[in-house]
Amino acid sequence: MTNVTTLTFNKTSKAFANTRYEGAYINRDSAFEQHQVKVVVTQENQQQELIYQVVPGNAFPAAKLLNVTVLDSQLQEEATKFAQSIVAFHQDKDSYTLSLLDSYPA
Questions:
Q1: Residue 106, in any domain of the structure
Q2: pLDDT range class, residue 59, cuts 50, 70, 90
Q3: What are the angstrom distances between the C-alpha of 43 and each of 22, 27, 65, 87, 98?
Q4: Is there a domain that residue 104 lies in?
């Protein structure tokens, strides 16, 4: 059974002009290793889709980039932090608020 979360996250880049991110948490099935985050990076008029696997971490699950991309390393780092903020939100929906998306987890 595939369950795609309907909540979509949006963020405008603070470091890159005309760049924004749209992300969603995707739960493929009940197995934890099947959980993913999809981030679409829009820069100028170009879009690129990044897929992150949700993997167990020390304090909480982490977002690990699956597909090899040709992105500026700083842009990819910003997209990864955004993906991680989505993972953190979905791990603790009750105490984590949308306003915290601007403050990435350490």
A1: no
A2: confident
A3: 12, 27, 19, 23, 23
A4: no
Q: Read out DSSP for 48-90?
A: EEEEEEEE--SSS-EEEE-S-----HHHHHHHHHHHHHHHHHH
> Nearest Cα to 25, choosing from 65, 68, 63?
63
Q: Span 67-88, mean pLDDT? A: 87
Can you name the residues that pair with 63 across neighbouring β-strands? 54
Pick from 37, 50, 51: nearest CA to 8: 37
* Global pTM exceeds 0.85: no
Domain membership of residue 27 as a residue range:
3-98
Distance CA 1, CA 21 (A): 27
